[in-house]
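Fold this complex.
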Amino acid sequence: MRMERIERDDTHMADLTVVCTDPDTDERSATGQTLAEGGYEVVSCGSLAEATEALEAHSVDCVVTEYTLPDGTGLDLAGRVRDRSPDVPCILFTNESSSAIRTDRREDVVVEYLPKGMPKARESLVRLVGNSVSQCRQVGYPLPDDEDERLAALAQYDQPGMETADSFDRLTALARTHFGVDVAFVGLVDAHEERFLACAGENWETVAREDTMCTHTILEDELLVVEDVDADPRFRDNERLAKLDIEAYAGVPLRTPGGAAIGAFCLTHYEPRSFSDAELDDLERFGDEAMEQLELRRMLNERDDTGAETGEAATGSEHS
Amino acid sequence: MSVQRTRYTFDGLPLADVDRGTNILVAGPALGGIRTLVLRMMLREHDREGAIFITADTDGPATLDAYERLGGSLDATRVGVIDCTEESVDDADHNVCAVGSPSDLTGVGIEFFSLYESLHANGATGVRTGVYTLSPFVLYASPKPVYRFVHTMAGRIRAADGLGVCAIDPDTVEDQTLSSLSQAFDARVDLRREGDDIAVRTRGLADQSDGWQPVDLDG
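Structure:
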């Protein structure tokens, strides 16, 4: 069950980039100005093509768009957002009534809708953008209750050098042989994607959070076991998993001493297969080992940081 | 002077008042009385409250009829329906908006936000939203748009101090689906029927006993 998520503090709004698409110059300028006054970085676009370019050129946090664009619709734009950065909220801010909007080819994109004709519509838009981003309102997967705390915890462990750590390579190679599976990996689940610290048997880069099974593993108290991916309603339509040939999965959450699930230690197989209780006990041991490595590295990083600060302070005192 | 309401109340039901902005998943068998439970949770406490139904199991006019029979008043400036059944037709007089298929979650979302805004513009304070039921959406659409729709709807309800009451029949969806969908809600009410005895159990709400409470849905 979800708790009320903490609203993003206004001082952080300046970090957020909003693509504002409207073919009408005056309206685009008025909406852009209100958003900028609300503290957002605004990229203004007049067409679907311009907005698509903006999606490529910037790290975008939210898309605001009119429905009718000279070369398509706001829902076409939402479709492109879902293909590239699926978690980014899209808001139709439009003069069109809801009944005039054709959704038949875009049934899956799911957007917010705010009519321009409402009283104080632009002020409402500024709030809606903030809430949509801070509450992750348009993500296509379940979120943990403690998502904000989880991401804060992850930041402490997600330090440079983790990917190159040999111990994770050794651990996953060992797991792959031990369980006789096609792939064994350690993944960190960040706000929008899973990244792999080590992946024995494959060379996966990143997987969007809405596609990775570890999104569900971090919600589990103990383990997630899916013996046949095609038989599980959460995953059977998932094209990315099909492309990666994942037919069976067992994963254990990597939990910090504070209890935050920051990633998972996982086994996948190209064919459906079962996992015995003894194997799952061993998988938990591999998970514990990986988490201990992460914890040690976090402590080393912390000690290095403290050391560096102490060093600077000493240098400073010499010159005073 | 207007009195600011701070909680939503459920008259005649063994459910404690809930905070504004709460989203509740109501799970129970379709034939066990869950429709009546949801309709009664949707009864407006006073005229200024609004009510929006999102229906996929029963059509809009039938939903409004059933609501009226349970004592709900049908003021079109305060009450509306997003009808997602395949036979749905728009009816502006009764605020029925047709979407035409539970697979069109983009359409459902847009009609819902449009109606939500217009009820607020009409002066409604506190809008109850009832989804009856989520099951057809789960069956006809794929998981990602369903999560997206539920998060977006629940988020708007939370931010607007509304109330969300979302029904699902656990027998129509797989356990994994139900469990991961529950994640989007603040609380869950389960309904069970044994013979003529109906009981509800609540989880995730403050000031509420977590055991089974008998309920008389005809009363």
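Chain B has a mean pLDDT of 93.
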